Amino acid sequence: MQEIRLASRPSGWPTADNFELVELPTPEPGEGQVLIRNQFMSVDPYMRGRMNDVKSYVPPFPLGAALDGGAIGQVVASNSPGVPVGATVVHGLGWRDFAVTDAAKVRVIDPAAAPTLSAYLGLLGMTGLTAYVGLLDIAQFREGDTVFVSGAAGAVGSVVGQIAKLRGAKRVIGSAGSAGKVGHLVDDLGFDAAFNYKDAPVREQLRAAAPDGIDVYFDNVGGEHLEAAIGSLNKFGRVALCGAISQYNETSAPAAPRNLALAIGKELTLRGFIVGNHGKRMPEFVEEVGGWLRAGQISAPETVVEGLANAPEAFLGLMRGENTGKMVIKISE
Ligand code: NDP
191-218 burial by CB neighbour count: b if 16+ within 10 A, else e? Predict the structure, then answer.
């Protein structure tokens, strides 16, 4: 088997040298365990934080050990009657082609219930739940709201915009980093307006796209985007602080937002959240989003990179904006 290890810790932008591909004998499952042949694995922005040796809501990746993260695979050997050979499972041991884990730590899924297996890492998985919880519970979205979402063509952002439309938003605006992504948001995902944040200041482009202001901002980016949103938010506006990807590879403190004091007079609510603490919403999420998926009302865009060895490059590409929708790595058929 093969696994990818953290070879060294980056300062600023990571490089391929921070990762190492290692060959090992394939392990045997112990009592109550299963051996999984991984088919897909996820790369996610939060993994950048785990490459640093700092305390956070998830512990850092240890040096010299395999990285981990969301994965889907098929059980090929089992010492657990509840998770038999042939079952398709979602679990937390990505970054390797075979994984041994306790049967209690995997979730059996129905591969036929989604358009692609990898949708269980995106629309029907962690990033979809993040969008659902962040928009509905954290930002307290209400029908008739005008919603702005940054990172809108990514895994979380693309689902936020679609849910807002399906739940009756007045207007949904997205920002993304290329003309192609902007076109995709409006033409394929039903956004009312979108702009490329690299073209002109976010503040100006947001004002033009939302002349009557916004009620909800779903923040995936932080910095200049958050400052622009605070400027455009209407009285009693709400912000879901989901991520701050513009800062993950920076080595100095961000300059923006400089206008936080506006939150007082506008009586804004800015609330952070970690999806891992909202698992109790999984049943409603699966029912509602799964229903939209079956009805063809929501789409699950993804960018698929082939081969475990290319996972580090895919992870770096994710932070450079090379993905549209969920970035996943196909490890085997
Ligand atoms: P995405 O699929 O959105 O991929 C990351 C995207 O970020 C890239 O495609 C790129 O798109 C964009 N990006 C990179 N650098 C910048 C920058 N400087 N300014 C603006 N955009 C940038 O990732 P996810 O959907 O998985 O994650 C989105 C956000 O949500 C991240 O901040 C992540 O950390 C956060 N998150 C938080 C969770 C929680 O529990 N709070 C759970 C899951 C995710 P572009 O081409 O548009 O620049």
Answer: bbbbbbbeeeebbebbeebbeebbbbbb
Beta strand pairing call for 146-149 and 214-219: parallel
Are 120 and 326 spatial neighbours (Cβ–Cβ below 8 Å)?
A: no
Q: Residue 95 and residue 195: Cα distance in Å, rounded? A: 34
Which residues of 255-296 form beta strands (DSSP E)? 269-272
Angle at CA of residue 300, ends 310 and 191, nearest 5°: 120
Q: CATH classification of 2-122+301-330 is 3.90.180.10, yes or no? A: yes
Its sign, for the CA torsion 232, 127, 45, 140, is positive
ipTM surpassing 0.95, yes or no?
yes
For tokens 């005008």, name the residue.
146
Q: Which two tokens stand for residue 21?
A: 């591909």
Residue type, 145: D
Per-residue pLDDT of the chain (333 residues), as tens digits, is 999 999 999 999 999 999 999 999 999 999 999 999 999 999 999 999 999 999 888 899 999 999 999 999 999 999 999 999 999 999 999 999 999 999 999 999 999 989 899 999 999 999 999 999 999 999 999 999 999 999 999 999 999 999 999 999 999 999 999 999 999 999 999 999 999 999 999 999 999 999 999 999 999 999 999 999 999 999 999 999 999 999 999 999 999 999 999 999 999 999 999 999 999 999 999 999 999 999 999 999 999 999 999 999 999 999 999 999 999 999 999
State if residue 157 touches ligand 1 by the CB under 6 angstroms criterion: yes
Q: Where are the domains of the chain?
A: 2-122+301-330, 126-276
State the distance from the centre of ligand 1 to the C-alpha of 223, rounded, in angstroms: 13
Q: Does residue 158's CB lie within 6 angstroms of at least one atom of ligand 1?
A: no
In CATH, what number does 126-276 get?
3.40.50.720
* CA–CA dist 45, 127 (Å, integer): 11
* Cα(290) to centroid(ligand 1), Å: 23
Which ligand 1 atom is at minimum distance from the Cα of 272? Answer: 41
**Backbone phi, then psi, for 304, in 5-degree steps?**
-110, 125
